[in-house]
Design the sequence.
């Protein structure tokens, strides 16, 4: 019963946030954003705050408490998300791309611009990178990744 209420409340909040569907073409990340560097040093304090924010915001609802991509909403609405615990999932994303996707949203993922500060977003990125044993806060050099958020 509690799970049902959690899902219902999450879906209601998700709807109220204004989750807009954007096509892949609408989510072309500008090169300036791809190249943006994370100004938040990745250290234990930043990662701990990122973890707190990840759990306190809607991240875990879809991306999973541990970053496995199997959060309660992802399962219930058939979303196929990356498993951030796997190093290869993060290899194709720069920190700038991750920041852009969090702030602007993509597909079913709502935009968090105005809901989270820039510093909070960078701390969340540091935490997400820490989920993978070989992840780093500096980000990948590959650029222009595809983000499969159906």
Sequence:
């Amino acid at each position: 019963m509690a799970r049902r209420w959690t899902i219902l409340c999450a879906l209601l909040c998700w709807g109220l946030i204004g989750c807009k569907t954007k096509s892949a073409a609408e989510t072309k990340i500008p090169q300036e954003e791809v190249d943006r560097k994370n100004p938040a040093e990745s250290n234990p304090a930043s990662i701990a705050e990122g973890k707190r924010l990840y759990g306190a915001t809607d991240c875990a609802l879809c991306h999973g408490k541990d970053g496995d991509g199997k959060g309660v909403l992802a399962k219930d609405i058939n979303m196929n998300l990356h498993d951030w615990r796997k190093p290869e999932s993060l290899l194709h994303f720069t920190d700038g791309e991750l920041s852009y996707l969090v702030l602007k949203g993509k597909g079913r993922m709502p935009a968090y611009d105005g809901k989270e500060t820039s510093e909070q977003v960078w701390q969340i990125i540091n935490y997400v990178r820490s989920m993978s044993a070989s992840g780093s806060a500096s980000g990948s050099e590959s650029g222009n990744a595809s983000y499969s958020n159906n």
In short: Residues 2-131 form a domain with the Cytochrome Bc1 Complex; Chain D, domain 2 fold (CATH 1.10.760.10). The mean pLDDT is 77.
